[in-house]
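Weekend entry, working from home. Most of the wet-lab plans are on hold until the incubator is repaired, so I used the time to fold the two sequences that have been sitting in the queue since the last round of cloning. Logging both here for the record. First:
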Amino acid sequence: MHESFLVYRNFRHLKWALALIVISLLLYVWHPWHTSTEPPNGGTWLGYTLGTIGALIIFWLTWFGVRKRQFNAASRLQGWLSAHVYLGASLIVVATLHTGFQFGWNVHTLAYVLMLAVIISGFYGIYAYARYPNLMTQNRAGESFQGMLDEIAELDNEAVSVSDRINPKMHEIVLRSIERTQVGGSVRAQISGQVKEIEALDNIERELVEMQARVIQGEPDFDEDDAGETMVVMARQLSAARSGDHVREARHLLDLLTRKKSLVQRVRLDIRYKAIMDIWLYFHVPLTFALLAALVTHIVSVFIYW
């Protein structure tokens, strides 16, 4: 049975993180009684101790980003990821106590703020990877992403063949519809899940129902020159089919379009889930490098002016 990194080895790393937090808090509370000359801050022995621990954790957590692709066992990756999450969260307490709640417009506070930004972005990453993989699995319904794309291509080929048997005009419209079908695109398009062609296919179905009702009621046929949108033309072509063969082909084509619409929706949703999971890395990784730069500057400046 798969074990989540959050509960790895019965919350082993959560216990370590809690122990570190408790020890840090006890030392912080005890410090004024032991040293009455100055309050807790980064320049006391407690400040240096907590600062050293925090810096070592940050460097170790950054090393995880380098090492994670080298793990050859899932259990090792789970363990490191669990430690990454819980020890990273413990930095909120450890680093705050290190500062002694003394902040200012300087590189020391900048390093602290960047650390919080990295941790917050990491929290979002935990949420995303806990939620969206399951949604992706449900959405794919046992198929792979490439499998869904291949099925869309097969439906397109079959739709072209069927439309060619109806009339050349329908063949042209189906080809134009295929060319307009897009998946992926910009980051914004992936996250928003734009579905213009899905809306167009919905319009086909609605127009088809209306036009079939007109044909049944014996109302005048339409003028193709006044049709307007390509998708509306397709629907009217379908609804105007009078012979038995054309009706069967029209129904077949509509079934293909409906199945394609469902697949395109699932592919777009899959891409959207993947984009939402990955977008946090565009913040987490650059913020991490900025934190490292600020942290090194913070450490060097402390030793220079010590």
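Second, folded right after the first finished:
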Amino acid sequence: MAPRKTDFQQRKDIVLGYVVEQYIKNLNPVGSAFLAKECHLDWSSATIRNIFAGLEVVGYLMHPHSSAGRIPPQYGS
């Protein structure tokens, strides 16, 4: 079996980094289609949404409502 280009943990790290970076720049929720297109990720929007879901479970991301993109939670306040 051939190794994947990036494993799931690396993908989570990449996506989280882009979400935090874009949220700091724009103060708006970051969507999967935006990441796929504007950040030139070679993954589908569905793959990115799956990664979002995994990051939400562990508390690294949240979304303000069901159709919004994701934002980092505000810890440490």
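Plan for Monday: verify the second prediction. DSSP finds three helices and no strands in the chain.
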